[in-house]
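Service request form, structural biology core

Requester: graduate student, group of Dr. S.
Request type: structure prediction, single chain
Budget code: on file
Notes: please return the result as structure tokens.

Sequence provided:
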Amino acid sequence: MSATIPVMIPMLGEEEAQAAADAVRSGWVAQGPRVAEFERSFSALVGAGQGVAVSSCTTALHLSLIALGVGPGDEVIVPSFSFIATANAVRYVGATPVFADVDLQTGNVTVETLDRVRTGRTAAIIAVHQGGVPFDVRAVRQAAAEWGVPLVEDAACAAGSTAYGAPVGAGSLISAWSFHPRKVITTGEGGMLTLDDADRAVRLRRLREHGMNVSAADRHASAQPILEAYLETGWNFRMTDIQAAVGLVQLGRLAGLVAQRRRLAARYQELLADVEGLWAVRDPAYGESNFQSFWVLLSPEFGVGRDRVLSELAAAGVSARRGIMASHLEPAYQDAPPTDGLPNTERLTRDSLILPLHHKLTEADQDHIVGILSKLVGSSAS
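Core staff response, request fulfilled:
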């Protein structure tokens, strides 16, 4: 049967449709004034001085490494426990991804897991706020500074999350964001870089637009001809004004969406508290998650394997997903530098699953999902 409770539904309404239509009618359908407004609004929301809109979070990570001078011969520490784009961005610049393990409860790298794989060739670190759960920015930023290694924050899932009372992204060297439909807010596809360094932001804007010294939007807006120059090799990583128009509406929804997700997550946690052998993701002591993903971890006491749980949920009309992937186990990374073992990563990717969480999820839906999980405890071997 087809799923009746999807794992995720983007919150898109008539306001977004109207904003996109207005952008089309304006004639600005490529990168233009709405992109600039979206950059200003989003960077202000996350407490950063600059925003650079791009075509995806993957391209944001790519450009961040270019801007930091990372290239062939360098190593970049990344969590294996992340969507594969995090590691791929390192390969795009010719560097080598080195996989770090994560904390079992947050799914995030720690100072200890990073230090374990740090070498003299470490040129950068990409730390992920996994599933919207913030990593310990205070500890990791301090350690990276002491090591003299630039830290890029992969905040793809973390719009609306906080750490130490501030928005994720505030105070970071560079943060990369995603607006894919699986995220809390979306522009269809699209991404953003936020940072405080105005000079670096100028270069990032140039790099996203073929290395041009003046943007196409500025050239078209000028009353006089402007002869552009191409100062370095760049890419076509631009966001469109149609996407930005949708994003501006979505920004107005963010606080309400996060509040709703946190309420539903708290109810999941309460309902699942007495399910033997199952642990549900929670806020870390130092911050609050937007619960972009609500994942649960199964232990041997649960008595049923993760894959069977997914099958039973699907049969009951519930679309759940496996937990976050372990990139080092994928065929694309079989030739990556060997690890000394990533036990937490491998347990999480084997034994965790993501439950439905979205604005249309009802309490009856949650009761149905938790009821299935409760009945499965110890039912039989997988």
